[in-house]
Write a structure and sequence with these properties.
By secondary structure, the chain is of the alpha/beta class. It is built from eight helices and seven strands, in the order βαβαβαβαβαβαααβ.
Amino acid sequence: MTTFTLDGRTALVTGARDGIGRAAAVALAEAGADLVLWGHRDDLDSAAAEVAGYGRKVKTVAADLSDEAAVQRTAERVLAEHEVQILVNNAGIIRRGPALDMPDSDWSEVLQVNLNSVFQLSRLFGGPMCERGSGKIINIASMLSFQGGVNVTSYTASKHAIAGLTRALANEWAPRGVNVNAVAPGYVATANTAVLRSDPVREAEIRSRIPAGRWAAPHEIVGAIVFLASPAADYVHGHVLAVDGGWLSR
């Protein structure tokens, strides 16, 4: 179906080395897009090779999203070389622990990476999209965009804010032809959830609430990302799409 193909488009995915980011990059390549893979470090060769296996052009860049100046420089370099039609703000970090014990540095770092950098990248790449009159921005939200969680205060605050930022930017940019939406994954087997999955009590509590009865694999999340990046979602604006095995229905 041509409404789901991404031929001729270039997508940039942050946090593309593994997990949901890598799965998203591969799925976008399979749908026809060329890729710019953005990582915290220059260790994206394996992901790039997988994307290239679909016959797509692929470029890798490395910049720490907690470094605003580095993000600015890297984004400007990408924009000088590529017309990016799709931006997937996937990268994120988590710091676990009781709020009373949380170092200020942990709070600041999580908000910088998970929220501030998303706003920064959205403006940097969304500006040219608004000028062209088209573009897709997909943010990665969370079940903690809707709930409070346990011992993840900074992460929860950042993901609630991502849902709000998605809607706010959609209100401004939809009239200019740019779609801003978000995908909210449920509990996915990635590095960020390794601590939870290694705790037999907490893991069982979580799994027992998921109607599907299991954790998701990263590739089970990315169909929603491809959909929101495609022409099929041209009239979808400001939506947070949960892919959660039924978690929010329980």
